[in-house]
Design a protein that fits this description.
- Helices cover 42% and strands 19% of the residues.
- It is elongated.
- A hairpin with a 2-residue loop joins strand 1 and strand 2.
């Protein structure tokens, strides 16, 4: 007579099941709020000090005496996140945010020409090309910070 015997020992299964139960009961909204706050902070840091796109590319010089993307601080001040269900959205509410992110042409609307000063000289032109300076997005370094936020949340759940 032949036979087969299998012995299966699952060590730590009770710990894994306990963690799964705790995780299922955890407030995922709290995690999303934490991650949203981290991404908002990263975006503001990118504008105020890093001066690079999320992929690490330095923004083109603006040819002016003020910091790139920080003329009045309005763009930076408008950066905010929202959480709706499972979705975290980070964006900017100033009207020109999309033009800064994607670039484009700025045309005179209420006059025949745009008039501004560059390098001490007054310039009048019918339109100018706004160079894209992407500020929204997540870099590889940003992902590490986000992962740390998630890790801290999971450790809290496990405690």
């Amino acid at each position: 007579m032949s036979g087969l015997s299998v012995n299966l020992t699952l060590e730590g299964m009770d710990l894994a099941m306990d963690f799964a139960t705790r995780l299922a009961a955890a407030d995922m909204g709290e995690l999303r709020e934490g991650v949203g706050g981290v991404i908002e902070s990263q975006t503001k840091r990118r504008i105020m000090s890093e001066k690079t796109s999320p992929d690490g590319e330095a923004w083109a010089d603006n040819g002016r005496d003020n910091p790139i993307m920080d003329d009045t601080g309005a763009l930076n001040d408008s950066i905010a996140y929202t959480v709706a269900g499972e979705v975290i959205t980070v964006g900017a509410s100033v009207p020109y945010a999309a033009q800064r992110q994607f670039g484009g042409v700025i045309k005179a609307v209420n006059a025949q020409r745009l008039v501004f000063t560059v390098g001490g000289k007054t310039v009048a032109v019918p339109q100018v090309e706004q160079i894209a300076r992407p500020f929204l997005g997540v870099s590889t370094d940003n992902m590490s910070e986000i992962e740390s936020e998630i890790d801290a949340f999971l450790r809290e759940v496990a405690a």
